[in-house]
Amino acid sequence: MSEMHVLLVHGMTGAGPWHWQQWLAGQLRDHDVEVHAPLLPDPDRPDLRRWLPALRDELAAVPPEAELVVAAHSCGAALWLHHAASVGPEQRSADRVLLVAPPDADWDHPDSHDITPYPADATSLRRAAGMTRLVVGTGDTYLPMHRAHALAEDLQVEMDVILDGGHLNTDAGYGPWPAILRWTLYGTAPLHDRFDTDAYTAGRSQEQLRLV
After folding, report:
1. Checking DSSP bridges between strand 159-162 and strand 200-202, what pairing results, if any?
2. Quick one: what percent of the chain has pLDDT higher than 70?
3. How far apart are CA 143 and CA 99, in angstroms?
4. Are 12 and 44 spatial neighbours (Cβ–Cβ below 8 Å)?
5. Nearest CA-CA partner of 39 in 9, 67, 68, 64
6. What's the distance, Cα to Cα, between the start and end of the chain in Å?
């Protein structure tokens, strides 16, 4: 069995000490899993021209024989979609990717440069990773639910919907999150909320919505 290598890609402002990415990194280290949670350049000011090369440097550093798992949050998820759209055959593909609460493609912020809009191409996404999953929260001010469904449809991926999950960040209470640890280690899906209560999973069509 190949060694697992986990890459955590933060969003705008980074991932503070109480963020689920920091909790997840600690849990993975306790499981003797290699995990990298790099601080992208000038995290308060996401800039595609600086963030994309930094992401690709991280990917290139992963041993080719390792199982590569990526969990990206917010602008980090948008960054992954930019990467996927332009990934070349010489670049490292991931085995599994989780896109957590990406912003709407129409989201705009004066301190963010070219992170949005982002491409949403299912074919390129499959080149970048063997499996990609999307998880969003209801009440997310950065991604309305109808736009989340449209994104899942465009990407042709399954989407877990966390009720009252908001932006799935520290403000929404997402520090410890057992479901994301299980997904990272074992690919367990669907992802439940931080209390491990039921989530909604949308299939590859907006009409395929079921409680799991």
Report:
1. antiparallel
2. 93
3. 13
4. yes
5. 9
6. 30
